[in-house]
Batch of 2 targets.
Target 1
Amino acid sequence: MVKETKYYDLLDVAPDATDAELKKAYRKKALRLHPDKGGDPELFKEVTHAYEILSDPEKRKIYDARGEAGLSEQGGMGGMDPQDLFSQLFGGAGGFFGGGGRPSGPRKTKDLVHRVSVTLEELYKGKTTKLALTRNIICTKCKGRGGKEGANRSCTTCAGRGIRVTLRQMGPMIQQIQTTCDECNGTGEIIQAKDRCSNCKGKKVVPEKKLLEVHIDKGMKGGQTIYFRGESDQAPGAEPGDVVIVVDEKPHERFKRQEYDLITEVEIDLLTALGGGQFAIHHLDDRALIVHLEPGIVIKHGDLKVIPGQGMPSQRHHEPGDLYIKISVRFPDTINTESITQLERALPPRNTIEKFDKKVVLEEVIMSDADSRQRRGMYNNHDESMEDEHDEGRVQCANQ
Ligand SMILES: [Zn+2]
Ligand SMILES: [Zn+2]
């Protein structure tokens, strides 16, 4: 039995959640709430704090027994930067969001994340694209020292640590606050203006333009990433991070993609649906697929057909996906009354009217088209093809 459930509620988990469940829940929430994704920064902070407490077995024990009050009696650290915890969990500094954050292992510079927008045609055929980016490289003139040899002095304000720690008494607890040293901008070193390298102005690094060749493989999907290891910024005493290319798949006007399958919609006329014929599908490469419809086989409105192997190519040369075709049949608005006898010969007979009990009064009525306002009311959130289906239904209802 836990004293409070606030932190569990923030993560949408039960108080008996396992560590794995907690982590999963936090990932899900944090991805949605991350300020870089337009989430609420305050809520993101709260959720991160809740996870920080619950993922620490000691702190969780205290929270379960005595609630939030129990934790503040413990005193201690002022809490972790939510960005940092987020980065730890999602791997690498900044992860997909390009945000700040200090990695915990050997120092590594931030990953550079670029999104590349590609069409479905390009994903179908594969594509090589060149990407120009600017990154920092170690200054060759001073070899990353920032100035003359021996000109670097340890910063006295922060004792060369680059951070300043201040303690603050808040009621019963002492809070420890870490800030970047503003004297040395967190580098821990000071170089006198006259000793600074003229090439990098003492910054130790200089910007460099670099051209990367990005191979978009056949069959890649939106959200997939391409890594260029160690191609991010260089910095003295740090390992360069990666350049991460994120593939963005543009929506297509003719095809929808579902993993390796493609879905398209084809409209055929009533005569073709009943009497056979053909239609064409312009594919994602320079081909048009011609589909023959056998006379004598009826294609119905709403039928779903499939052409095997005509979906997206698979990335690792396995079986390609399939092409699904949603068929709609276009009905004529009117028909020549003289041809109706021919239709009567060709089609199954009409449905006869239902036999009613003698008590039921038969009343003849007039049916007309519903206007667009009425239709909207009836079929809100439905697309055109849905309306067509309902049209048929409505005619049947009125016949009864
Ligand atoms: Zn230099
Ligand atoms: Zn300093």
Target 2
Amino acid sequence: MDENIQSNLATLQTESFQTFSLFSSLKTDSLMFLNSRIIKMSWHYVSDLKTLQSLNRQVVSVENQKILLIWHEDQIYAVQSQCPHLKLPLAKAEINQKNEIVCPFHKSAFDLCTGDVKCWSPWPAMLSGVLGKVSKPKNLNIYPVKIEDDRIMVEVA
Ligand code: FES
């Protein structure tokens, strides 16, 4: 191969690599930027204290997320409204003695304060092995809550 061609080829390969490196770092920066947008949180007014106290449960929509508000033992909890197992509604879920919210469909249980999964799809027992493998165990999303002048505020990304 001609020396000039070899030299040009080497230059092109180096430039291509530099371009790729630049692209890679830009992509990382974009992801970091996106990431910083994802974790940016803001407070949203979602309901009034008296309304939730009278209803006990209320599903609200904030930033395209459906959130289940729960009034339980004089506390307000805000959790994702759908069970992480098969995305079925948790509005009628029971809360057990361990302060876990238990899905009415296959009895997955989640810590009401942290959202940690405590039990994954154990019911019905004959199908739990199959149903439990339909999706991997996932925690329930929990949203911070505060009250401002009887207005319930939820912090959402
Ligand atoms: S949908 Fe909740 S445990 Fe299956």
